[in-house]
Specification:
The complex is a heterodimer of chains A (256) and B (310).
Chain A: H1 2-22, H2 24-27, H3 29-50, E1 52-53, E2 56-57, H4 58-88, H5 93-97, H6 102-128, H7 139-163, H8 169-183, H9 196-202, H10 206-219, H11 226-250
Antiparallel strand pairs in A: 1-2
Helix pairs in contact in A: 1-6, 3-4, 3-6, 4-6, 4-7, 4-8, 4-10, 6-7, 7-10, 7-11, 10-11
Chain B: E1 2-12, E2 18-28, E3 32-36, H1 43-50, E4 58-63, E5 66-67, H2 72-77, E6 79-82, H3 94-104, H4 109-122, H5 138-150, E7 156-160, H6 168-183, E8 187-192, H7 195-201, E9 204-209, E10 212-218, H8 219-227, E11 229-235, E12 251-255, E13 258-263, H9 269-278, E14 283-288, H10 292-302, H11 306-309
Parallel strand pairs in B: 3-8, 3-9, 6-7, 7-8
Antiparallel strand pairs in B: 1-2, 1-4, 4-5, 9-10, 11-13, 11-14, 12-13
Helix pairs in contact in B: 3-4, 3-5
The chains are: A mainly alpha (256), B alpha/beta (310).
Bound molecules: adenosine-5'-diphosphate (ADP) and magnesium ion.
């Protein structure tokens, strides 16, 4: 039984990875180009006038956040478009008729999202080498935070896809929720620059914890305590995981 | 052992539409069974529930004795289903679609490749294995779904209108293919709205209309019923009991002066009246009894067959 589920898991995962690698021009290249532009504009052109942020050059400061942003956007985008596509053209039924537990379906899609998030993350990191000379304080923390964050947003993408009824619905959340939260999540500035009130508001933004713990992994310093940040991320993962499983179990959006 | 048992199956869609109104059905292992009915009768709904794509409102379904609720993993692995509408990723290559399906059932990769090759060859799709599925013709897409349904070696194969949109020559080839699969021991259930198809292929048949099963019998007895006509006869004298006639089996007494007789195709009304007169029974009036089955088939065949045109 376990072997059967393992094969099913590998099948879904492989299919998910093939999907985004086959269309790499649409999936891998755009975030790389975008991040290169950020580095050129904010890092080199404007950054020189900004001077230091939190004791480091501006371009060094934004680098972890830009990588994190790419990971978040891409792990989310992968699952939301793949799952919604499967629902729309009904090939999700291929998994529904087969003896695949919902947990395996969930893990398969999440692994696909993580794979895309991390692939883009690596590509973007390589590009940033052209613009900044960074060192890594703790590779383990960098990897752990990247992994957890991509898991979290892969599941968020799945929930979006389950409820989506049109292609519009799969771009509304990224545009109106994800992007603003990311931009306000401390990628471009240290929240210490904000007035006390807005600092408190920012603490309600989950992305702040990911960006800062990720920055900690690179620089060994950040606005937020690492343990707090990891606990926040893990609790989000636990909640989203449970929601995903319940929705799949109920067949919301995929079974009449 | 029944390949499929359905008890009191109900389905009400969210729209409030009652698509199934308490269906009971049993299909023997090894049978070739037709579920016949006009469009909108509830055939696809029924199949959707069996294969886990539609939630039932009430009732029980067992596949080779395994409940689709409590033992769905076993039940699902015994079943292969070919849906009415294409539901594969049209951008994926043909071979990948079938191999992946085997993977979902836990078939190891090497065996999955072998089985895929076997069925794609048998169904004439092997030379198209690297094409994206959207490049296939309608008939080829249908056969792709059959290969996909068989790749994990199910004991029960259910096909929802498998020959819709398939031209007559390929239709025959598909019938032969399904016959072979059935001969090798796979139980087959197919839905159709062509009586001819059911007649050519199936041993037993259930007819569904408006969400209820209105007939469940062998194909033979269905055809006999379709080819005979029932008359209601009003007699001059009262009879103590239904007369026993030589060439007419189904004689029912409805009233002391009214009887109902089924006249097979080979016999005429004259034969009937003659036999009755020979027993001193005089018929005053008669009328044709409306046959629900015939009515149903008129309804099924009168609908414009859009798939044939497509
Ligand atoms: N998803 C759905 N929502 C609401 N009604 C549906 C849905 N699917 C089918 N129906 C209705 O249920 C009835 C039975 O449909 P179906 O099972 O597809 O019949 P058949 O396959 O025999 O043509 C029809 O009246 C159809 O309109
Ligand atoms: Mg149908």
């Amino acid at each position: 039984m376990l072997r059967q589920f393992w094969i099913a898991y590998l099948t879904i995962t492989r299919k998910e990875i093939m999907r985004f690698t086959r269309i790499w021009i649409q999936t891998i290249i755009p975030p790389v180009v975008m991040v290169a532009l950020y580095f050129i504009i904010f890092g080199n052109l404007i950054g020189q006038r900004i001077g230091e942020m939190d004791g480091m050059s501006y371009v060094d400061f934004i680098m972890p956040g830009l990588v994190m942003m790419s990971i978040i956007t891409n792990s989310y985008a992968n699952v939301v478009s793949s799952f919604y596509g499967a629902k729309y053209s009904r090939h999700i039924e291929e998994m529904q008729v087969a003896p695949v537990p919902n947990l395996v379906i969930l893990l398969g899609f999440v692994t696909g999202g993580v794979a895309r998030g991390l692939s883009v993350g690596v590509a973007v990191t390589l590009v940033s080498l052209l613009f900044t000379e960074f060192s890594v304080h703790s590779p383990a923390i960098v990897l752990l935070v990247a992994l957890l964050t991509s898991c979290l947003f892969a599941m968020a993408g799945l929930i979006n896809a389950i409820f989506a009824n049109s292609f519009d619905d799969i771009s509304i959340v990224p545009t109106f929720v994800l992007t603003p939260l990311t931009y306000l999540g401390g990628i471009f500035y240290s929240i210490k620059l904000l007035p006390e009130f807005w600092q408190q508001v920012s603490l309600g933004n989950p992305i702040l914890y990911m960006v800062n713990s990720f920055r900690f992994g690179f620089r060994g310093a950040s606005d937020i305590d690492l343990v707090t940040a990891l606990l926040v991320i893990l609790s989000f993962i636990a909640v989203l995981f449970a929601v995903c499983l319940v929705l799949l179990e109920r067949g919301t959006g995929i079974r009449q | 052992m029944y390949a499929l048992e359905i008890e009191n199956l109900h389905k009400t869609y969210a729209s409030g539409l009652q698509a199934l109104k308490g269906i009971d059905l049993k299909v023997e292992t090894g049978d070739f069974f037709a579920l016949l009915g006009p469009n909108g009768a509830g055939k696809s709904t029924c199949i959707g529930i069996i294969s886990g794509l539609v939630n039932k409102t009430a009732g029980k379904v067992r596949i080779f004795g395994h409940s689709i609720d409590d033992e769905f993993l076993v039940a699902k692995s015994l079943l292969g289903s070919v849906p009415q509408e294409f539901n594969f990723n049209t951008f994926e290559p043909v071979e990948e679609i079938v191999v992946n399906q085997a993977g979902y059932y836990g078939v190891p990769a090497r065996i999955a490749r072998q089985e895929t090759e076997r069925y794609l060859k048998q169904l004439g799709l092997w030379q198209h294995r690297r094409s994206q599925a959207r490049r296939l013709s309608g008939g080829m897409k249908r056969r792709l779904m059959i290969a996909r349904a068989l790749v994990h070696k199910p004991q029960l194969l259910i096909l929802d209108e498998p020959t819709a949109g398939v031209d007559i020559e390929l239709r025959r080839a598909m019938w032969d293919f399904l016959d072979q699969i059935n001969d090798r021991g796979t139980t087959i259930i197919l839905t159709t709205h062509y009586l001819e198809e059911a007649e050519r292929m199936c041993r037993n048949v259930a007819i569904i209309d408006g969400g209820s099963i209105i007939q469940n019998s062998s194909m033979k007895s269905l055809l006999k019923q379709l080819n005979s006509e029932t008359f209601v006869l009003y007699l001059r004298e009262e009879l103590a009991q239904a007369p026993r006639l030589e060439r007419f089996d189904n004689v029912v007494q409805l009233d002391p002066q009214i009887i109902e007789v089924e006249v097979p195709e080979a016999l005429s009304i004259n034969d009937l009246v003659g036999e009755l007169e020979a027993r001193g029974i005089v018929v005053e009036r008669m009328r044709n009894k409306v046959n629900r089955l015939e009515e149903l088939f008129v309804k099924m065949t009168a609908k414009p067959d859009t798939e044939m045109l497509a």
